[in-house]
Amino acid sequence: MEPIVLVHGGAGDIPDCNVEAKIVGVKKSAKIGYEVLKNGGSVLDAVEAAVKSMEDDEAFNAGFGSVLNLDGEVEMDASIMLGETLMSGGVTIVRDIEHPISLARLVMEKTPHFTLAGAGANKFATEQGVPTVPPGSLVTKSAQQALDQFKKTGYVRTEIGEKNTGEVGTVGAVAIDSQGRLAAGTSTGGLNGKMVGRSSDTSVIGSGTYADDDLGAVSTTGHGETIARFCLAHTIIKSMESGRNAEQATHESLCKMKARLNNSAGAITLSKTGEVGIGFNSNRMAWAYQKGDEIHFGIDPNEKHVEKV
Ligand code: GLY
């Protein structure tokens, strides 16, 4: 089996001025994840490293650069899942943590639970020696401007600093190694102007994230309330179970969700045989994957570029 690390940088109405930064960021993330696999790391290590790279990057709505709640604070959600054991970990409404994806992994590996929320998740982080950053240090100028604009106009904004309405820009990664082991992870700052304490689909296994070595791995992005009601990640997995390939399962599930709930989203999928599925019915979604010495990437519908690494 050829190892693959596939990532997305969020579905939404991404304005032209943000396209370059998104593409640079997803390519970097896919390469980092792939290097981890190539150097003997596990699929969990690869997914975590790929997501961390986007959490550090202000071009994405996760970690540093997250959108803000109505009180002007960053509250983040993340989840991670290992396909071999179906073990998973999630955090929701966490504050002042640079890498929520790493905290989600610790929940999976060090607790008997699958999700920790709010103050409890932050307490757990402190107990585990996970560094917290000073309050407010994950807030960017663009995020602050987007919240100010939201309060004036009432639009829910996807891509911070712009006037577009629509979905948020969550990040995620899925990976398969040479043994066919799978993992998936997703991380978000949520919705700009969300209520304080709002929890998203991203921390919910089956909605934001799913991985099962017998079927495949999925990470989703888009309007969280819609994705959660449709259990989008698990719907794609079940579609592969009933015989659809990764691409069909991804596209058809997104279409069904749109038809039923009238909201768009995006998803990245790997099947248990390493087929790639990339789908979105938003205007754009940045994605990239590395396979061998090639990096594949795109952001517009039907756009696909391939470069030698
Ligand atoms: N899908 C991410 C969110 O709605 O916050």
From TrEMBL:
Entry keyword Protease: yes
UniProt xrefs under InterPro entries: ASRGL1_meta (IPR033844), Ntn_hydrolases_N (IPR029055), Peptidase_T2 (IPR000246)
Gene3D superfamilies per record: (Glycosyl)asparaginase
Binding annotation for substrate: R198, S199, S200, D201, T221, G222, H223, G224
GO molecular function: asparaginase activity; beta-aspartyl-peptidase activity
GO biological-process terms attached to the record: L-asparagine catabolic process via L-aspartate; proteolysis
Record has Nuclease as a keyword: no
Protein keywords: Autocatalytic cleavage, Hydrolase, Protease
Site positions (Cleavage): G169, T170
PANTHER family, per database record: ISOASPARTYL PEPTIDASE_L-ASPARAGINASE, L-ASPARAGINASE
Function according to Swiss-Prot or TrEMBL: Has both L-asparaginase and beta-aspartyl peptidase activity. Does not have aspartylglucosaminidase activity and is inactive toward GlcNAc-L-Asn. Likewise, has no activity toward glutamine.
Similarity comment: Belongs to the Ntn-hydrolase family.
Protein's name according to its UniProt entry: Uncharacterized protein
Organism from which the protein derives: Brassicogethes aeneus
Classification lineage: Eukaryota, Metazoa, Ecdysozoa, Arthropoda, Hexapoda
